[in-house]
Amino acid sequence: MPVYSMTGYASGQSAAGSGHPDAEPRTVGAGRLGVEIRSVNSRFLDLTFKLPEELRQHEPMLRELLTGQLKRGKVELRAAIESGAAGGIGEPSTKLLQRLNGLQDSIQAWLPTARELSVADVLRLAAGDTTTRSDWGPELSELAAKTLKGLMTSREREGARLAKMLQDHLAQLRALVAQALPLVPQLVEQQRNRFLERWQEALGASGGTPPEAAQDRALAEATAFAIRIDVAEELTRLGSHLDEIERMVKKGGEIGKRLDFLIQELHREANTLGSKSATLELTRIGVDMKVLIEQMREQVQNIE
């Protein structure tokens, strides 16, 4: 499955004068429908609809459509009906012409001196006619589904970019782990020997030869100190977390929350590595790790 970003945008518009086959007929120039959907990252699925009064009744249908495809993100759907009057002169419907003719006959029966309607009068009245407005539901459903498909394509494309970035950062972190691993046994042995040397120097300065009990105590404390600065366990856990992140990125799907948790674990291990570090080289490696992990954390926030 692909990796989806929560960031995306898509828009669609019906052709002027078009309509869904199941919809009631509209007059030419009655308007055209436009839909746009935009989304950004969010912990949960947060839907917002901005619809004109004519489309407000279709919000439940739109909500069901979005929840069927989207799992996380702050999503805003806008829809608008653009008047067709600006694109040219609309043709009055037969029903409207019959109605105007009947009204004209009735008025002239009571007011014989009233003038007849001109072509301009009829066109002006047709422009404001609302009796032929169709049910926008079928056309809105079809256009919203098409726009949602475009949004999913946009989110998939952005998700592929994020997945590639994560793979690159995983490779860099693995390289840093590989640099740190050979340093661990050397560091432990070095610190152990240094501790013993200082202990014996201190006893030598006091003018006495350290008894066997004192030597055993020195060895035990040196060993305990070496254990405290041993970061092999942290490096092992780092490698395990990196393997799991790589597996999830390859698997795809709804992985954002799980990735966010693993990034926190990576950060915790990198912090422990830095606090235990007893050499400048390990300190540098720990800092480089934390920079990469922070960059990953920022991007993982956008993955669904």
Q: How would a crystallographer describe the biggest sheet?
A: 4 strands, mixed
Give the number of DSSP strands.
4
What best-fitting shape do the alpha-carbon axes yield?
rod-shaped
Q: Percent of residues in helical segments?
A: 55-70%
Structural class: alpha+beta
Count of helix runs: 9
- What is the residue-averaged pLDDT? 81
End-to-end span in angstroms?
12 Å
What's the SSE pattern? EEEHEHHHHHHHH
**Strand adjacency order, main sheet:** 1-2-4-3
Q: Oligomerization state of this entry?
A: single chain
Structure overview:
The two termini are about 10 Å apart. The chain has helices at about 60-65, 95-110, 120-125, 135-180, 185-205, 210-230, 230-250, 255-275, 280-300, and strands spanning about 10-15, 30-40, 45-50, 75-80. Mean pLDDT is about 80; it is low at about 25-30. Helix content is about 60%, strand content about 10%. With about 300 residues, the chain is of the alpha+beta class. Strands 1-2-4-3 form a four-stranded mixed beta sheet, covered by helices on one side. Strand 3 (about 45-50), helix 1 and strand 4 (about 75-80) form a beta-alpha-beta unit. Helix 4 packs antiparallel against helix 7, helix 4 runs antiparallel to helix 9 and helix 7 packs antiparallel against helix 8 (about 255-275).
Which tags fit this structure?
single chain, about 300 residues, alpha+beta, four-stranded mixed beta sheet, 9 helices, about 60% helix
